[in-house]
């Protein structure tokens, strides 16, 4: 239901998004039946496609041409998909989007090479854009995404990390790819530098807000709503903002510490989830997400008024209140 509400916000982009969906399927096609099955397994499980949406909306500020924009939108979504396949190996995740992960359906080796294959297809696709600047921005973004993944591994199970550790992680893990989606959509459409810079910053701030809400939902949603066990971040050792805000309670801190890096039963997992859900950590994390949301909206106020700004504003508000 929530996903339907989001899609309604950009329903005017439906024909373009259907075209991009077909291009995504074609992009992961190969002569290997195994690679096809593994790649389509995640693609057909669905997703919000928020990165292609931002590419298209950013294109509204210049010379909007779907045949150019899709050459950026497709690789950005493929990069996101590849990172999810690799993430599930690192986090040993069994379920994503309500379906078995690639590593669970096949094994870690198949998952790692499937992720590599999807990433390679993304790079192949972006070569259709003849712009060194576009390639430079995408390359730097990819480097930062990889750095973010390594930082996440290093920070696992580290309950005493500070807020700066968390923010530098989600910046690289999520915000920069959304920021690049906005910037690259603007650049390939020939927008002016000032507009592209505002769109880049909008993408960054909305990406930070998006990830914080994602981390909150890991505790406030049910297993069914998430399509994976609630509290998965904690189980996998990923210390997110709700935990960092809640840990100042000595009793809660001791409980978190004693349950960290353990094979929790469902009953123990629910106790951790319930403790965080009832702590001040949720509201404090929501307040931080709201701060980033307001910064994103401020960037939109500098842009020319039109359908692009209108839809981006609606999506921004939805992200701040979303429940999936």
UniProtKB/TrEMBL annotation:
Top-rank taxon: Bacteria
Enzyme class: transferase
InterPro entries per record: GerC3_HepT, Isoprenoid_synthase_dom_sf, Polyprenyl_synt, Polyprenyl_synt_CS
GO molecular function terms attached to this record: heptaprenyl diphosphate synthase activity; metal ion binding
GO BP terms: isoprenoid biosynthetic process
Listed EC numbers: 2.5.1.30
Transmembrane segments: none
Cofactor(s) required for function per UniProt: Mg(2+)
Record-linked CDD domains: Trans_IPPS_HT (cd00685)
UniProt KW keywords: Magnesium, Metal-binding, Transferase
Gene3D superfamilies recorded: Farnesyl Diphosphate Synthase
Known catalytic reactions: 4 isopentenyl diphosphate + (2E,6E)-farnesyl diphosphate = all-trans-heptaprenyl diphosphate + 4 diphosphate
Keyword Signal attached: no
Protein role: Supplies heptaprenyl diphosphate, the precursor for the side chain of the isoprenoid quinone menaquinone-7 (MQ-7).
Subunit composition and interactions: Heterodimer of component I and II.
Family from the record: Belongs to the FPP/GGPP synthase family.
Name recorded for this polypeptide: Heptaprenyl diphosphate synthase component 2
Organism field: Planococcus halocryophilus
């Amino acid at each position: 239901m929530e996903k339907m509400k989001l899609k309604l916000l950009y329903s005017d982009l439906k024909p373009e998004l259907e075209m991009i969906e077909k291009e995504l399927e074609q992009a992961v096609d190969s002569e290997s039946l195994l690679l096809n099955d593994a790649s389509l397994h995640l693609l057909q499980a669905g997703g919000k496609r928020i990165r292609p949406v931002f590419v298209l909306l950013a294109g509204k500020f210049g010379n909007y041409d779907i045949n150019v924009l899709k050459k950026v939108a497709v690789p950005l979504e493929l990069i996101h998909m590849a990172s999810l396949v690799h993430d599930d190996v690192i986090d040993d995740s069994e379920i994503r989007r309500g379906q078995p992960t690639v590593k669970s359906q096949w094994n870690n080796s198949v998952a790692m090479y499937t992720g590599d294959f999807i990433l390679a297809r993304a790079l192949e696709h972006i070569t259709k854009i003849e712009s060194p600047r576009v390639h430079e921005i995408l390359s730097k973004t990819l480097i930062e995404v990889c750095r973010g993944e390594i930082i996440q591994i290093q920070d696992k199970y580290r309950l005493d990390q500070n807020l700066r550790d968390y923010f530098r992680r989600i910046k690289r893990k999520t915000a920069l790819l959304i920021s690049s989606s906005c910037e690259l959509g603007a650049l390939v459409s020939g927008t002016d530098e000032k507009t592209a810079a505002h769109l880049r910053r909008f993408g960054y701030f909305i990406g930070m807000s998006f990830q914080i809400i994602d981390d909150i939902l890991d505790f406030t949603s049910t297993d069914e709503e998430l399509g994976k066990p609630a509290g998965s971040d904690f189980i996998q050792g990923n210390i997110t903002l709700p935990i960092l805000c809640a840990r100042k309670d000595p009793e809660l801190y001791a409980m978190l510490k004693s349950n960290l890096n353990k094979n929790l039963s469902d009953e123990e997992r629910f106790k951790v989830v319930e403790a965080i859900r009832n702590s001040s950590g949720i509201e404090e994390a929501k307040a931080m997400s709201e701060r980033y949301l307001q910064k994103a909206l401020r960037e939109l106020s500098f842009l020319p008024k039109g359908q692009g700004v209108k839809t981006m504003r609606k999506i921004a508000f939805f992200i701040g209140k979303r429940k999936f």
